[in-house]
Write a structure and sequence with these properties.
The chain is 45% helix and 10% strand. By secondary structure, it is an alpha+beta fold. The longest helix is centred in the middle third of the chain and has 19 residues. The chain is globular, with a radius of gyration of 15 Å.
Length: 168
């Protein structure tokens, strides 16, 4: 994926348009899987703000206004594939936010929230399309705020293959 999807990694903390951070976002075919039509895609690309913030977290959508927040270290140091999949994931949440859905239902574990399952299903589909193997997808789904047991539950629910011998 290197070199195919441009990411503006050297932005300073501040407010940006989506295409300022991800200049190629409008050309990503996966957007037609997320949004209803070209009009909605254009509206999201033009209107969604991205805040680059100097905090330790990675990326999330603000449940109040639908803005995307990206941690500065994540923007600067994460792989192209992870950043690409993360923005796809967050754009799924933007769609859900536009539908009036609660992105952070605290009554369910993170890996059991329908909003997360929906977004991760799109991620897994897109990860396979860009050539990531099952081990790489499992690794992508391993996030710091879930337990190993929750990770395995998420992996199984999304139909990601079991670990290979080299991953065990």
């Amino acid at each position: 994926m290197n070199g195919i999807f441009r990411i503006s990694r050297h932005l300073e903390p501040g407010r940006y348009r989506l295409r300022d951070v991800f200049p190629d976002i409008r050309t990503c075919g996966i957007l037609s899987r997320i949004f209803a039509d070209d009009k909605e895609i254009d509206e999201v690309v033009e209107r969604i703000h991205v805040f680059v913030v100097d905090v330790p977290y990675e990326m999330f959508v603000n449940n109040d206004d639908g803005a995307i927040n990206i941690g500065l270290t994540h923007l600067r140091k994460s792989s192209d594939e992870f950043l690409y999949l993360d923005i796809v994931h967050e754009l799924c949440h933007v769609k859900q936010h536009r539908q009036g859905r609660d992105l952070y239902d605290r009554q369910k574990a993170y890996v059991d929230r329908e909003t997360e399952i929906e977004a991760y299903r799109v991620n897994v589909e897109e990860a396979r399309r860009i050539g990531m193997n099952e081990d790489a997808i499992r690794n992508y789904l391993r996030v710091s705020w879930i337990t190993p047991e929750e990770h395995e539950r998420l992996v199984r629910r999304l139909g990601v293959a079991e670990r290979s011998a080299s991953d065990a």
